[in-house]
Amino acid sequence: MIERRSSRVLVVDDDSMTRELLQLLLTRHGYVAELAESGEAALLILGDKEAQPDAVLTDLQMPGITGKPLADKIRSMCGDNLRVIAMSGSEAGKAALDGFDGFLRKPFSMDALDRLLEREGIPLSSRMQPEADRAPILNQKIYEQLLGSMGEKKTAELYALCLEDGRRRIAAIRQEAAHGNDEICRKQAHAIKGSCKMVGAIEMANLAEYIEVHGVTTTLMDTLDELLRACGRLECIVSKRRSTQHDGTAEETARRSHA
Questions:
Q1: How far is CA 57 from CA 104, 117, 135, 190, in A?
Q2: How far apart are CA 166 and CA 151, in angstroms?
Q3: How far apart are CA 193 and CA 201, in angstroms?
Q4: What pLDDT shows up at residue 28?
């Protein structure tokens, strides 16, 4: 296991929801997480030699400097001892990963990140679960992993944050689509996809990916309506999971009291 010595990880992602999610997960697992909303902001932080992190975890798809140019600049500033790990919601080719110590495809497990930080040799692409194991609405294994690592309250807060962010971005897509802003719509959909994959919200992630790929089309509003309904379905299934956990806890308490 990785030795916890307040290891500092700089998370670089232009999506605020993803940054907050990763900060929650990293902090829960004993890391000190620092956040940067762009490659440029990350380089400013890394320029402070007294506060250099142990690793950089950066998204591959951001405005401004990203990918190999960002990795090269980090190397020139910090040398080879700093672990530089790429992450993305989609697969990345070898050329895109040049200069990085590893790659994590969202959603990924904390165990996979631990192994990369420990410098163990693992495959560059690390998915949390194969497609065949994914539920239509919610990946139960991802949900259970979050529940086990964060607890019931924090997990509920995390899904509530994801749903709030998704609904806000859906409204933004509607507004931007009315003005024909195709690129902004795609970016908003990409952000929804990324955050939903991190929490195993598979149905929402798939619908968001469809919008990201196709942009403003004649079917966009119908897809947004379905995405909004998917929010409700996810909210319902998470609520049922939580209710079941409460019932199970009550039954166990009652059983022990009569033992």
A1: 9, 10, 28, 18
A2: 23
A3: 9
A4: 81
Residue 223, both tokens: 């897809």
- What's the CA gap between 217 and 211, in Å, rounded? 9
Given this model, what pLDDT does residue 185 score?
Answer: 95
pLDDT level of residue 245 (50, 70, 90 thresholds): low
Q: Are 88 and 105 in contact (CB under 8 A)?
A: yes
Indicate the CATH number of 140-254 among 1.10.10, 1.20.1070, 1.20.1250, 1.20.120: 1.20.120
198: left (phi over 0), alpha (psi -120 to 50) or beta: alpha
In angstroms, the first-to-last Cα distance of the chain is 38
Tell me what pLDDT residue 97 has: 85
- Which tops the pLDDT comparison, 80 or 195? 195
DSSP state of 31: P
244 has pLDDT over 50: yes
Among candidates 81, 16, 90, 9, which has minimal Cα distance to 42? 9
Cα→Cα distances 240→55, 142, 203, 232, 233, Å: 38, 16, 17, 12, 11
pLDDT at 246: 56
Contact (CB, 8 A) for 35 and 23: yes
* Separation of alpha carbons 185 and 207, rounded Å: 13
Per CATH, the number for 8-128 is: 3.40.50.2300
Residue scoring higher pLDDT (259 or 150): 150
Stated pTM of the model: 0.58
- Please list the residue range(s) of the chain that carry CATH number 3.40.50.2300: 8-128
